[in-house]
């Protein structure tokens, strides 16, 4: 068996504009693995530990999947193709209290085609632990109450545009549940306050694979601001419709 090659490159971030991301790469004859996060995220102790742990879990899953595929290929006499897994976390905005990251995943497990996905990660600096967008609100369901109609309407409009006016029935005509989406607070103008929420539906969530992912951006409204817990309100800013 070809000897496995392992690479691990870790760049320690500096408090400058030139700070580089932390990236780890591991390559074997079965798997090409890459996991990366922004230097700003690495500077936060709890967040760094979270990402390191997530990287370890992701590598274990990807390695096990590749090993299972090798055994299946041998047993069923089909060619094995090296798997790949690449995850990258980028900062989409940060405030005095919160930092918001969007994770972009690309992977190929020897299937009919490569796949992709998006994840959201929100971190509360003050308590140094993960938060959720829904958890920023006083009442359960406030996020959906303030955004659901606008999100579903915008998604349907984008679907209609991509489908050139054709309307689908069934699963890909429904508005996905929020638990199926990555919801990312975004600071577009980089003034350290979130001004939009980005709703990302990965392929197969809101439409077939060929349509790709659906990204719907909604501005922060007065209704959203009013529903936030007091300690998080200053992290967001109202946007005119």
How are the strands ordered across the major sheet? 1-2-3-4-5-6-7
Number of strands: 10
- Overall form: flat
- Order of SSEs, N→C? EEEHHEEEEHEEEHH
- Mind telling me the C-alpha Rg? 20 Å
Helix coverage percent of residues? Answer: 25-40%
For the termini, the CA-CA separation is 61 Å
**What is the residue-averaged pLDDT?**
93
Low-confidence stretches: 1-17
Major sheet: 7 strands, mixed
Backbone structural class = alpha+beta
The number of distinct helices, counting runs of at least 4 residues, comes to 5
Percentage of residues in strands: 25-35%
Any overview of this molecule?
The protein is α+β, with helices and mostly antiparallel strands. The chain is built from five helices and ten strands; from the N terminus they run βββααββββαβββαα. It has helices at about 40, 45-75, 140-160, 220-225, 230-235, and strands at about 5, 20-25, 30-35, 85-95, 100-110, 115-125, 130, 180-185, 195-200, 215-220. The strands form two sheets. It has a seven-stranded mixed β-sheet. A three-stranded antiparallel β-sheet has the order 8-9-10, covered by helices on one side. A hairpin with a 3-residue loop joins strand 2 (about 20-25) and strand 3 (about 30-35). The chain starts with a strand and ends in an 8-residue tail after the last helix. Mean pLDDT is about 95; it is low at about 1-15.
Ordered list of secondary-structure elements with their pairings:
Elements: E1 5-6, E2 22-27, E3 31-37, H1 39-42, H2 45-76, E4 83-94, E5 98-108, E6 115-124, E7 129-131, H3 142-162, E8 182-186, E9 196-201, E10 214-219, H4 222-227, H5 230-233
């Amino acid at each position: 068996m070809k000897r496995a090659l392992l690479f691990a490159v870790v760049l320690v971030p500096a408090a400058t504009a030139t700070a580089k991301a932390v990236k780890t790469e591991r390559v074997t004859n079965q798997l090409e693995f890459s996991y990366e996060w922004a230097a700003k995220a690495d500077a936060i102790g709890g967040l760094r530990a979270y990402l390191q742990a997530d990287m370890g879990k992701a590598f274990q899953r990807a390695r096990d999947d590749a090993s299972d595929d090798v055994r299946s290929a041998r047993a069923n006499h089909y060619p094995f193709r090296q798997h790949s897994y690449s995850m990258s976390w980028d900062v989409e905005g940060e405030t005095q209290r919160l930092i918001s990251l969007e994770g972009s995943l690309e992977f190929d497990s020897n299937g009919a085609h490569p796949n992709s996905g998006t994840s959201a990660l929100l971190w509360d600096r003050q308590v140094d632990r993960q938060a959720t967008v829904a958890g920023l609100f006083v009442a359960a369901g406030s996020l959906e109450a303030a955004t659901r109609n606008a999100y579903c309407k915008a998604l349907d409009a984008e679907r209609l545009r991509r489908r050139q006016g054709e309307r689908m029935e069934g699963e890909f005509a429904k508005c996905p549940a929020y638990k199926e989406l990555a919801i990312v607070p975004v600071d577009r103008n980089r003034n350290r306050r979130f001004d939009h929420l980005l709703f990302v539906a990965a392929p197969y969530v809101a439409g077939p694979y060929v349509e790709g992912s659906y990204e719907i951006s909604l501005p922060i409204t007065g209704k959203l601001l009013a529903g936030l817990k007091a300690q998080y309100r200053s992290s967001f800013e109202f946007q005119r419709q």
